[in-house]
Amino acid sequence: MVDQKPPLPPIHDFATWEPVLRLLRAGNAQGQAARSVRVAGSIGRGSWSLPLQRRLPPPGRAARAEDMQDEFDAVKRVQRALADAGVDGISFTAEISPAGKAALRLLGPSPAVEPGIGTPHPGTLILVEGALPEPCRRLPEPAPGAVPAPSADPGLLERTLRERLPRAVGATEAEIAAAEARLGITLPEELKALYRVTRARWEDRGDDHEAAQRECRAVGCELFALDDLYVADASSRHCRWEFAAMEAVVTPPDAAVQGLVGSPGWIVFGDNGGGDRLAVDLTPGPQGHVGQIIMVGHEENVGASLVADSLTDMVLNRLSERRGGSGGDGPPVVAHVNIRSLPSVEAAAHPGLEVLSIGVWDREPLSLAPVAGLPRLRTLAAYPGTLADPLEIAGLTGLEFLDLGPQEWRVLLGAGAVPRSLSAAAIRVHGDQDPLAVVDVANEILALWDRPRIIRTVLEGSLGAVP
Prior knowledge:
It is a single chain. The protein has about 475 residues and is of the alpha+beta class. It is about 25% helix and about 15% strand. It is built from 13 helices and 17 strands. The chain has a six-stranded mixed sheet. Strands 6, 7, 8, 9, 10 and 11 form a six-stranded antiparallel sheet that branches. Strands 2-1-3-4-17 form a five-stranded antiparallel sheet, with helices on both faces. The chain is globular, with a radius of gyration of 28 Å.
């Protein structure tokens, strides 16, 4: 009996990728008929980045979906294979000879590597399983003297809402208690008063298609059903490592709201219609009130803005004019050294510095000596070529995140000087660098922590000669 090899998984089947490769050859072969075509890209379940020059629509007509139908169909074929394999995304490089022979190299995935954004290069390397950036680990500072605002009036709030929503179906005490048990938190009295008037369930509205709009006008936001209340702790505000590591939690003494990623005391109950969430704040800043209403913006990674001193104020449209703390006159804990911001590393250095970002620079490379030994410095991000001596990084003993160019990483790897304090790392790539070389660097870094490497799979096939 002849042993039979099991069929290849679709994502590792050349036929799955053939339509994409044909499009890439056609889009990159102009004027290169006698040379091989070299391309790189990435495809995820919901997006893709391919080096294609799309055809322009005829003059006088806007682009239409059907103009890209071949691309949609080819990508969808790969996306179905990704879904079948349980993979979120994959990068690749390909070399296609003039005769049509193709060598496709699939890069990844690895559970220790975040996907790159619009690039075939790897994203952040997670060196410690389950590690979170420092801002995501921060809990609210206690505010023992904080009390509800004088304007908080559950009785007035309930009467006002009953006048505005006379036909609404309110929550029972048992339903409110069930919500508290689910959340593991006691709801503030104003929030209970709101949901006693309306529990905001779609099924309660029946055929009344205007009910949601009336409710929105009555409360001042798109109200979540009682069953959909949630706590906006740090885990609810997902942010990629390389972005969160560049942030810092800062709460000035005159702040009404703590500058957190999230808090176990932020109870989200609504939306402003643009993706920003309204929450009752039970962990206010030094100058805030327990139960104040804050807005957690979807375009920011940390902090929230004060909307009203109480839910009563919000419903009565008595919005706060306070805008939080001033931040004081101290040096920034997140410092940017580049041609437009701080002029030197010396100007950024102070004992409270947490994040140092070195960007576009047109002068002599910089020394890190001024920030060596700083007690709170945890993140360094430096554009390729901006450091005079990458080995000075050894003097930054508290780093948890390091973002460098491939050559700088090569210096550290060659000297055995990669900081062991790191929880995550990134390789900053500019220009058209070979993804295979970058993956080699990434795998060497991952190996130091014995983390899963980026798998490289080679698929070969023929696309035939160009017709």
